[in-house]
Sequence to fold (209 residues):
Amino acid sequence: MSDTQRGLFLSLEGTEGAGKSSNLAFIKEFLDSKNKNVLVTREPGGTPFAEEIRELLLTPRDEVVCENTELLLIFAARAQHLQKLIVPTLEQGKWLVSDRFTDASFAYQGGGRKMSFDTIKQLESLVQGALRPDLVILLDLPVELGMQRAAKRGALDRFEQEDLEFFSRVRQAYLARAEQNPHRYAVVDASQPLSSVQDDIRGVLESLV
Ligand code: Z5A
Fold:
């Protein structure tokens, strides 16, 4: 796929309660208002088959899910999502915003679960080739605040049942990636009131369009 012809690929990332869902609609509305043809999708998931894998991954269960099993299922869902939805959409010149992508694997499986970053990189190359999001918007906030916000939502999924230390490692892994890839990351302070978070996101998007 030629980078000059394809649409722009954005991903939205953050730890627990960062406000991804609260801001996705805002991002789509803003880009639509600028006449960008935008598709919003999510990971894990994005196609019917990948959504079934998402169910497997998020459902709390008695049997412990092994780390390699989790990682491979996430990349299996991603392979399906890429081939069936992401690549065809970008090839049509459309913009695509994904609620999480591979940066989440580095943060959750690499940071949170302490899996090898090299293994994740190998899977990234295998499944994605050279394709990476053009911009990652990272909604960053203190882990305690995010967990307080998320607690208001009711039943916890398999990831949400992790503890403060896990989410602290996830946050540190995201921030480390942002520091290593400043040209590809926009870090937004998500501890602010929603209107201020959206002002900051608008600033990031305005510089793109
Ligand atoms: N996962 C993984 O491990 N590896 C991978 O490679 C990928 C994913 C791709 C599902 O993701 C899980 O998959 C995820 C990591 C794992 N697990 N976790 N945790 P998900 O993205 O579907 O799930 P989520 O992280 O729970 O995200 P979410 O549902 O989109 O929500 P959110 O970002 O946590 O935020 P929210 O629902 O928009 O907001 C939470 C509450 O805070 C809500 O009541 C809002 O009204 C409130 N809120 C939001 N913003 C504000 C501000 N600014 N002020 C005050 N209150 C606010």
